[in-house]
Sequence to fold (86 residues):
Amino acid sequence: MELCSPEGIRVQVRQVLRWLVAARQDRDAGVRFLHASYAAGNLDILRQVASDEQIRQASGENPVALLKEASGIQDEAQRTLRQVLA
Fold:
C-alpha cells in the first residue's frame, strides 16, 4: 500500500523548498533558524511516509541534500544567535 502519492510528495517537497528559500533570505537569525526548522520538520515527516527513492523519483530532489542544507542553515543561525546573545 502506498502511503503517499507522487503528487503528494511533490506538494510536500515544494513546501520544504519554500521554507528553505525563506531561510536563505531571512536576515534575522532567529527567523532563519525557524524557517530552516520548518523545512527540516516537513522533510522528516515526508521521509516517514515515503522512501528517499520515492521522493527523488516524484520530485527530482535529493532529500538527504535538502536535510543537509536545512541543518547547515540551522547551525549557522545558531552560531549567529550565540554571538548576538553573548
Q: What stands out?
A: Residues 63-85 form the longest helix (23 residues).
